[in-house]
Amino acid sequence: MRSHDWFLRDGQAGFKARSRMKNQGSPQQMFDGRPVIGICNTWSELTPCNAHLRILAEHVKRGVLEAGGFPLEFPVMSLGETLMRPTTMLYRNLVSMDVEESIRANPLDAVVLLVGCDKTTPAAIMGACSVDIPSIVVTSGPMLNGKFQGRDIGAGTDKWRFTDDWRSGQMSTADYIESETCMSRSDGHCMTMGTASSMACVVEALGLMLPGGAAIPAPDARRRRLCHFSGNRIVQMAREDLKLSRLLTRAAFENAIIVNAAIGGSTNCVLHLLAIAGRIGVELTLDDFDKLGADVPLLVNLKPAGEFLMEEFYYAGGLPVVMQHLREVLDMDALTVTGESHAHNTAEAVCYDDSVIARLDAPFQEGAGIVVLRGNLAPDGAVIKPSAASPALMQHCGRAVVFHSLEDFHARIDCPTLDVDEDCVLVLQHVGPVGFPGMPEVGNMSLPQKLLERGVRDMLRLSDGRMSGTAYGAVVLHIAPESAVGGPLALVQEGDMIELNVPERRLHLHISDDELAMRRAAWQAPPPSAERGYTRIFLENVQQADRGVDFDVLVGGSGGAVVKTSDAQAGS
Ligand code: FES
Question: Buried (b) or exposed (e) across 283-304, using 16+ Cβ within 10 A?
Fold first, then answer.
């Protein structure tokens, strides 16, 4: 156990380590060599989706103590989607560094990662992977369904819808404000199949969470039991040395890609899975998502691709049912945190509502996975989620209406004189990792008001940014290389014709190679958006979307060994 090198030492070093810990009331027997379990908590009142994680941590502690471990909770930076500016994605890698260094520097034998809101989940896993000690994930759980004027509403998805209705005059301001209150009525993260729910399911598919854990509603007492059982299990994992690298094999990532497709999961999972794979040393590429996931049918009928919300998903049987339905295409022998395979974990799963979870032979939609596009506009790739887009726009050629920044977009999109119709392609530049910076969720640009008023609800939109997992539309995202580093997106001009062909995986700018070369020669890089601080570190180290937007210097891991200590030698 790593902790022995702190707490079982003789002399001054052991005295110092044990003595000060005793000021919290821990008796001598806690330092007898039992596994020390870190509870890495992304709790924050500024992250409403994770605001109840201190309560859940108490249930993890009960489980750890019951199993004979010594639980120690510690905070790391939290990332709340709804408040942080300019965007949480700017800070995902920073949190991963916080998690990695906090784990390695302390006497921890294993960790429970308490996460929930979108970026907190990948950030914590990335950090833990770079240390590679036994780890188990517990998410904060989805909120209860929103309830508004007699119907269920989903976080994010219905916000976008209501905003379009309100902007086009179909919804009153009073109703719009009232819907805010009705949307967020319990603890938990977004209860649509947005990024938080998608990542929770992906984590379960990776084998890092106890079976069925992803979908339990946050206020449901069964989530507290999940915490208790996770506390029990992590102690055993520490004793078994069941490290992340034993679970996160290539097969685990392939399972996660297939599951994300079948649940209609978020495009953000592409970035996070690439980054996690990079940390643990598994070869994973953007093309794997298309190859493994694009043809997977949609089995889960949840917003934004479908009808229901996470509560119904849980009551219908949750992810174990989905995995069982997918057993012919998944590697069910992959090992999980239970110490058993998915086949073992899901053997008893029962579907209680096939209007929520479909069988593989009767899916809600064929070919629902994320598609990877290439072409002269995206040499290193781009993604689109056809299950959340208008089928009619999946083969489309239209005239580009170009916005050079998010500020330019906001200034002009509702201008009555903007030359735009529903066949146009909205192009947003400089919202990539370097350009914004931090790659914000602005790819699902709101449509021009004059078109909304005419009933238009979808248009082809292109950017180097991201899209909220709760959003929908014919939205091409993650274009790489991005415009701020000279990618072809930077060279698109007003009036150019752009063609999207999803069946052929093509994104093409209809100008000649000579014209493209001329524009490239005239292109000038924008000035860096930061001169100092963390943002400068981000700009100097961030990789493009096709590499998961991780820092080049963070790829891989350094293990759990502490190279040097300033402590006195044993016995002195
Ligand atoms: Fe936190 Fe959606 S805002 S999960």
Answer: ebebebbbebbbebbbbbbbbb
CA distance 382 to 377: 9
Give me 206's structure tokens. 């990776």
Region 171-186: what's the mean pLDDT? 95
Decide if pLDDT at 572 tops 70.
Answer: no
The minimum-distance atom of ligand 1 relative to the CA of 49 is 1
What is the atom index within ligand 1 of the atom nearest the CA of 468?
2
Ligand 1 centroid from CA 307, angstroms: 19
**Local structure of residue 218 (DSSP, 8 states):** T
Which of 47, 79, 81 has most ligand 1 atoms within 8 Å of CB, for mutation? 81
User: What ligand 1 atom has the least distance to the C-alpha of 82?
Assistant: 3
Contact 439, 465 (CB under 8 A): yes
The strand pair at 497-501 and 506-509 is best described as antiparallel
pLDDT tens digits for range 16-70: 999 999 999 999 999 999 999 999 999 999 999 999 999 999 999 999 999 999 9
Determine which residue's CA is closest to atom 1 belonging to ligand 1: 117
What span, in angstroms and rounded, lies between the C-alpha atoms of 153 and 173? 17
- Residue 425: closest CA among 384, 387, 475, 389: 475
* Whether the Cβ atoms of residue 317 and residue 345 lie closer than 8 Å to each other: no
Q: List all residues whose CB is within 6 A of at least one atom of ligand 1.
A: 49, 81-82, 117-118, 155, 189-190, 194, 196
First to last CA, the chain: 22
Under 8 Å between Cβ of 407 and 303: no
Q: DSSP alpha helices (H): ranges in 133-267?
A: 157-167, 173-183, 195-206, 221-240, 244-247, 250-262
